[in-house]
Amino acid sequence: MTDTPHKSDVAFIRALAELLRENDLTELRVKRDYAEADSIDVRVSRQTIVAPPPPVAPSAPAPAPSAPSAAPAPAAAENDDPARLPGAVTSPMVGTIYLSPEPGADAFVKTGDTVSEGQTLLIVEAMKTMNHIAAPRSGTVRRILVEDGSPVEFGAPLMIVE
Predict the structure, then answer these.
(1) Where are the domains of the chain?
(2) Where are the beta strands (DSSP E) in 21-94?
(3) Which of 22, 32, 90, 135 is the most exposed place for a label (fewest CB within 10 A)?
(4) Is the pTM of this model over 0.85?
(5) Which CATH number is associated with domain 84-161?
(6) What is the 3-state secondary structure (H, E, C) of 100-160?
């Protein structure tokens, strides 16, 4: 890019930011060539905050006062934070989740599948690198807590293998 910016560059970047916002995108990258030795490479992104998935079971145990109060309390606490469940597999990095090896292919695992230690459960894409996440232990996949193509943060629970 030349030392003097083109007047249209600011408008171009603003238009990209608006496109990002209007279409609820997280990132855009565009390279614009003006001449042989004059171009601009723009990356516009915004930070997204990934909320943990909602609990699978509704908070129904609270309205039943006749039931013993000791039994429902641990179940509610477990549903509040899946990362604390025994068998929780957490993300080792920030990235995008893929449940299958390629688009249209069958998922690596489904709820109820039996897995072996070291078997690939899913992929976390980070910086254009596909990182296979292996089962830390043998067991059964009890819950899958993420959706295919969704962003994930470091330490976020991905699935439960018991």
Answers:
(1) 7-45, 84-161
(2) 27-35, 38-45, 88-90
(3) 22
(4) no
(5) 2.40.50.100
(6) CCCCCCCCCCCCCCEECCCCEEEEEEECCEEEEEECCCCEEEEEECCCCCCEECCCCEEEE
Q: Which residues pair with 95 in a beta bridge?
A: 152
Name the β-bridge partners of 160.
Answer: 88, 143
- Within 13 A of 15's CA, how many CA atoms are on the CB side? 6
DSSP letter at 94? S
Give the Cβ contact number of residue 123 at 10 Å: 21
Ordered strands of the 129-134 beta sheet:
129-134, 120-126, 95-98, 151-152
Give me the sheet containing 139-144, strands edge to edge.
88-90, 157-161, 139-144, 114-115
What is the model's pLDDT at position 110? 92
In this structure, the chain runs to a length of 162
Find the DSSP H helices in the chain.
7-22, 72-80
Q: How confident is the model at residue 99 (pLDDT cuts 50, 70, 90)?
A: very high
What single letter denotes the amino acid at residue 96? Answer: T
